[in-house]
Amino acid sequence: MEDEEQQESKDEREMRQQLLKAALPHVKEHGWSVAALQAGANDLGFSRSASGMVSNGAAGLVEYFEDDCNQRLVEDLEGRAEELAALRTPQRVRLALRARLELLIPFIDSWPQALAIQASPAQMGTMLKQRAELVDDIWHACGDTATDYNWYTKRGLLAGVYAATELFMITDYSPGYADTWKSLDRRLEDVKRIGSATTEARKYANGLLKNLGSLAEWAQDSLVNAQRERQQRSRP
């Protein structure tokens, strides 16, 4: 009986993953929503009610996408180990950050909505966990072996760079997101300069952590501004 329950649980998890994967192509039309999940269910031949397998709805879809992107980045960096080995650490970090940000491009029009969902009180813990895993994966791929307080400082700084560049990216209309990559370079240069002073770096990282509470408002503002700008651009 226990084996049957475990198998059923495994089958449910697999169906849930299939549903989430099938829903992603519908985000462009329906946004990060239950409607996208229902469209995915339809593609798989499931009833629309199957979307209930994702108990947290739109938030579950965003969470799945972020986990998938993080895993794809890990696999990409592992496959580029020889290329990374030939670079200096700052170049490795830049390559990894850009590779991760580029995964957002197919969903960039609706990404402000995803950010707002992530920044809600119910999802803040999940978002922070996923960001922590992301920066840890990047530093690991870049050969970081720190075990003292620098471990936390480096990750705090990198998380700040990623978040700031991500928010810049959602309103960037330059060809190939050239302005985003310039912004990334500027922020990495700032971190490099701050990093030369350990005390200042710790203060900077701690400041980022203290300001996480304003992320929800920041993401909501980004959503409104991005949507307004895109509407203006679509007018004849």
Automatic annotation (TrEMBL):
Keyword Transit peptide: yes
Compartments where found: Mitochondrion
Pfam families (alphabetical): COQ9 (PF08511), COQ9_N (PF21392)
Top-level taxon of origin: Eukaryota
PANTHER family: UBIQUINONE BIOSYNTHESIS PROTEIN COQ9, MITOCHONDRIAL
Known function: Membrane-associated protein that warps the membrane surface to access and bind aromatic isoprenes with high specificity, including ubiquinone (CoQ) isoprene intermediates and presents them directly to Coq7, therefore facilitating the Coq7-mediated hydroxylase step. Participates in the biosynthesis of coenzyme Q, also named ubiquinone, an essential lipid-soluble electron transporter for aerobic cellular respiration.
Gene3D superfamilies reported in the protein's UniProt record: Tetracycline Repressor, domain 2
Keyword terms of this UniProt record: Lipid-binding, Mitochondrion, Transit peptide, Ubiquinone biosynthesis
Pathway assigned in UniProt: Cofactor biosynthesis; ubiquinone biosynthesis
InterPro entries: COQ9_C, COQ9_HTH, Ubiq_biosynth_COQ9
Domain Ubiquinone biosynthesis protein COQ9 HTH: 13-41
Family assignment from sequence similarity: Belongs to the COQ9 family.
Organismal lineage: Eukaryota, Viridiplantae, Chlorophyta, core chlorophytes, Trebouxiophyceae
Domain COQ9 C-terminal: 126-195
Name listed for the protein in its UniProt record: Ubiquinone biosynthesis protein
